[in-house]
Write a structure and sequence with these properties.
single chain; mainly alpha; Helix Hairpins; two-stranded antiparallel ribbon; 6 helices; about 80% helix; globular
């Protein structure tokens, strides 16, 4: 029973971490919105199972590295009380990992959605009135979601690096 309790507790902590990322990290929310819209477009495009696997692996890498980046930033902030070049470097390197993965994700999308015929069909579906209405109606809530609420990190300076 202790094994299952321990397992459930670890999942609880992991989901709490995801929820905290959603609450406090704007870039994480941007990645989630991108995942949502790309997933919808991928259904219209008609990816095969291998392409879906590649897409989902890509979807996992970018937000996961955003979590690692935030973890490093928080750990540095705990340890460093003043501006420190090594703290700045640690934060910059973690942010670079996210940027590299995001650029790679765009490259993956270009490869996955490169069939011109399928791309035109998916775009035609996307730009039909029902989907245009759905997209238009989603813009305002998505902007509100991305902007975040009172829990969003809004610091003007973090230890180790000025924002």
């Amino acid at each position: 029973m202790d094994f299952f309790r321990s397992l459930l507790k670890s999942f609880y902590h992991a989901f709490r971490g995801i929820w905290k990322m959603i609450q406090t990290e704007r870039h994480f929310r941007i990645h989630l919105v991108a995942i949502l819209y790309v997933t919808i477009f991928a259904f219209f495009y008609g990816l095969d199972s291998t392409q879906w696997a590649i897409l989902w692996l890509t979807f996992g890498i970018v937000p996961a590295l955003e979590v690692v980046n935030s973890s490093i930033e928080n750990a540095v902030d705990i340890k460093t009380k003043e501006l420190n070049p090594n703290a700045r470097l640690a934060k910059d390197l973690a942010a670079a990992a996210v940027l590299i993965s995001a650029i790679s994700a765009v490259a993956v999308a270009i490869c996955l959605f490169s069939d011109k015929e399928k791309l035109l069909i998916a775009l035609k579906i996307t730009f039909t009135p029902p989907w245009l209405i759905i997209i238009a109606a989603s813009i305002f809530p998505i902007i509100i979601f991305i902007r975040g609420g009172k829990n969003d990190k809004k610091t003007t300076q973090t230890k180790g690096r000025k924002k």
